[in-house]
């Protein structure tokens, strides 16, 4: 059984922004939507979803950007103002959850994605052996 009191630290590339989260992620996922491709500058995003209350400490300043995610819905991207790393996201569609960029943990043993969202928009060579949506 996973240790619900264990903590993980996610940090930006320059180290100015750090968040400490308690517990295990609800799920890990990859997303190949066009927005995630643009935001990451890659073919997909790799993220871990946590309960919003999982953040037990935050050090450093942030820069937030809101974008529309469909009719009447928004998503907030929380970045480091110095290096620009997208550390986490929160939004209406996530409810009381937040989505943390897995690369910010620097943990090679982090759980693999269990789902690929917006598979219809993925690059032709991307082949993840996970269930797909959209």
Question: Quick recap of the structure?
Answer:
With 134 residues, the chain is mostly beta strands. Helices cover 5% and strands 39% of the residues. The chain is globular and about 40 Å long.
Please provide a written account of the structure.
Strands 6-7-8-9-4-3-10 form a seven-stranded mixed sheet. Helices cover 5% and strands 39% of the residues. The mean pLDDT is 89. It has one helix and ten strands. The protein has a single domain, classed as glutathione-dependent formaldehyde- activating enzyme (gfa). Strand 7 (74-79) and strand 8 form a beta hairpin. With 134 residues, the chain is mostly beta strands.
Strand arrangement, major sheet: 6-7-8-9-4-3-10
Low-confidence stretches: none
Helices and strands, in order, run as EEEHEEEEEEE
Shape verdict: globular
Regarding CATH, which class? Alpha Beta
* Cα-to-Cα separation, first versus last residue: 32 Å
What fraction, in percent, of the residue positions are helical? Answer: under 10%
Give the name of the CATH superfamily. Answer: glutathione-dependent formaldehyde- activating enzyme (gfa)
Question: Largest beta sheet, briefly?
Answer: 7 strands, mixed
Structure summary, number of beta strands: 10
Structural class label: mainly beta
